[in-house]
Amino acid sequence: MFDAIWKRVFRVGVAVSVVMAALLVGGTGCSTAPVTGRPIFDLVDDADVTAKSKQAFAQMKASHWLSTDRAKIERLQRVGERLAEVVFWDVPDAEWEFVVFEAPGEVNAFAMAGGKVGVYSGTFDVATTDAELAVIIAHEIAHVTARHVHEKLSEGMVVEAGGVALGVASAGYGALTSAAVTSLYSMSSGVLGLSFDRSKEREADRIGLIYMARAGYAPRAAIDLWEKIDQLGSGRSAPPEWLSTHPSHADRMARLYEWLPRAEEVYRRTLAERARAAEVLTVP
Ligand SMILES: [Zn+2]
What we know:
The chain is mainly alpha-helical and about 280 residues long. Helices cover about 65% and strands about 5% of the residues.
């Protein structure tokens, strides 16, 4: 009896120490989110998240219906590659892959660490221009580069370590598995991506605008796209979880208009640089 209690006390101790050690050693402390400069806090090892995300993505591709629609596949490839070029320094370990999952009527997309991007085929009915598709992909990539995904996985690890402390789980001490990554992505709400808290959704919107602009897509497309998504949602009732975690439409619009001038400045600069580069190329 006492033996069992001591074992449990020991396990609680180990779990607490694992979390504390991870906070002290593994915490990335000095890193910051791109564009906003927000300090980032996560417990997970980057290389590990990338490896597990790649595994999870491979499993998703093996178990889901992939689109054979050439037009959609090529559009995603074209837009994705342009964005991948400009986010290079924020995801240096990426091996980019852009996959269209066949899911008629489903407006959803996600990005994983390691440069894995999935877009559900229904998304193309709403994002009808390349710039609108760029809004969605840039937003999802920003969730990765601003480490929202890493932070969410860290939370999962602390919870899991807590589970160990309570004797619910017996092994792992919050180890990251590709199953943990898959389950994070399967929580996706069905109306655009994973649910993060409002401040992270705002941050992804803000970073996404700058990414689009750097890739030469007019950031104003974000206004049109979110208007269309809002209209899409107005017919049906959004699940309560979605309402509680996602920014309201009015809030999102207000912020987008607030950040738009800066993004448009970046967009104009990108266009000017491209025009100069094209001139240099055409000079005989
Ligand atoms: Zn989001």
